[in-house]
Amino acid sequence: MADDKKQATWGGRFSEGPAELMLRIGESVSFDQRLARFDVRGSQAQAAMLAQVGIITVEERDAIQAGLETILSTIEQGAFTWDPALEDVHMNIEQALTQAVPAAAKLHTARSRNDQVATDMRLWFKFACDQLDGSLLAVIQALVELADRTREVIIPGYTHLQRAQPVSMAHHLLAYVEMFARDRTRLSAVREQANVCPLGSGAIAGTTLPIDREFAAKALGFVDAAGQPRVTQNSMDAVSDRDTFIDFASACSMVGVHLSRLSEDLILWSSAEFGFIALPDAFTTGSSLMPQKKNPDAFELIRGKSARLTGNLQMLLTMVKGLPLTYNRDLQEDKPPVFDSFDQSKLMLDCVAACLPGVAANASRCAAAVADPALLATDVVDYLVIKGVPFREAHHVVGALVGLAEKLDTPLNQLPYAEVAKIHSALAEDWVEVFDLDKAMAARDKTGMPGPQQVQARIEYWRSI
Ligand code: ARG
Q: Which residue has a Cα nearest atom 10 of ligand 1?
């Protein structure tokens, strides 16, 4: 049995302490200690508010706030002893404070761990969203710089993983920039949702004491653009709402999906079969058996880790769906998945941002791949359309040309003109000019297309954000 004096915070009605196994299943300090900074800030604001409304004196407030600051620096130096018997970060800190500052016995007035943990987590989500935003921005910048280096590298674009139409490598990379920019928007919406203060909701139904919720919210930075405090509007929702957890995990899953698709492209491109790029040695590994191998492990791990992020989201959705209002202890399990999603997303993004500057395009392999004239079959259709041939008919005509090229085992642009002319009268001798790749690229000049001017404009746009 544990020393039941340790559970003084709620142990009043209990005749014996919790079983060893109860402590093991009940503790969360092993993972929620990373909330220490937010817990201390929350308690300092709580003390300020209690003094503001006259529940504690200014001297008591100052002693509590200074005591908390000392505890925080001890924690940050790694010198704090966390005790699993005290369950969580909140009780560990409160217990340490009580030993140093007698007034600490008044700190938890009008507060429950339910609104306390909800407050800590909302502060953490704001921090986590800011961190991920910085990492996303670094990935965007690295992609834009790689795009700038590969503006003139033309490669086949693929649908169904079959060669489709030519694009610049830059245009392909900038597609990912669009995705990561949407991820930033999603995370900023999560941050906005987190930016509401639940403190004062108590365990479930608030308090009879004359607290000032707006004061505490303001002290913690839960304010709108005009500096006005934002507080939750239903105490029962405030202590049991885990929407922000789910939205955060969902935004991270989406980041993971985008990173995974980028990884897959880079893995394919770095294979001998494609040979479009070489990855930097620092982000690849060798084989213990095959001396020639250079494996794209970082990107394979990112592809693998993105599955973890999806799993974390699934776990949270499943955990919450059957819970009656309000707080249930199940909800303590809400933290490991969001911490993991944050840690893994940040690690993956930081790896990609660090690796991309070392990626080198192989110009000759790309040129060889894009030399396939069939990539411009659609441009021949457009040539016929300009000459007045209805699209459906033009598509059919070019299909016949492709069939003929296959039959004669000749590249499309080298078919004997005499044969070509037989297929359709609109195919004049100048039809082969369609196969000029530079002209073909320059013609794709409307918004969102891979023409060099469009790509250049997009690079400039992303550099300006
Ligand atoms: N460690 C707990 C958690 O994270 C804090 C809230 C405890 N509340 C309670 N009613 N036991 O969920």
A: 114
Residue 34 pLDDT greater than 70, yes or no: yes
- Beta bridge partners, 55, equal none
Is 313 found in the same domain as 177?
yes
Question: 262 in ligand 1 pocket by Cβ < 6 Å?
Answer: no
> In terms of domains, do 290 and 311 share one?
yes
Same domain, 354 and 402: no
On whether both 298 and 407 belong to a single domain, the answer is no
Of the pLDDT bands very low, low, confident and very high (cuts 50, 70, 90), residue 6 is low
Q: Which atom of ligand 1 is nearest to the CA of 88?
A: 1
Please state, rounded to an integer, the average pLDDT across all residues of the chain.
96
Per residue in 199-222, pLDDT (tens digit) is 999 999 999 999 999 999 999 999
- Total number of domains in the chain: 3
CATH number at residue 72: 1.10.275.10
The two tokens of residue 53 are 């409304």
Dihedral angle over CA of 310, 315, 318, 319, nearest 10: -150
Q: Which domain holds residue 297?
A: 114-367
Q: Burial, 216: exposed, middle or buried (Cβ in 10 Å; 0-12, 13-18, 19+)?
A: buried
CA of 36 to the centre of ligand 1 (A): 15
Supply φ then ψ for residue 97, to 5 degrees.
-70, -40
Kindly report whether the global pTM for this prediction surpasses the value 0.85: yes
Dihedral sign for Cα atoms in the order 152, 157, 161, 164: negative
**Other beta carbons less than 10 A from residue 323's beta carbon:** 13
Residues 57 and 84 in one domain: yes
Mutation probe of ligand 1 site: the residue of 327, 331, 332 with most atoms within 8 A of C-beta: 332
- Among 82, 88, 92, 124, residue to substitute to test ligand 1 (most atoms within 8 Å of Cβ): 88
Backbone angles phi, psi at 167, to 5 degrees: -140, 160
**Residue 406 is part of a domain; what is its CATH number?**
1.10.40.30
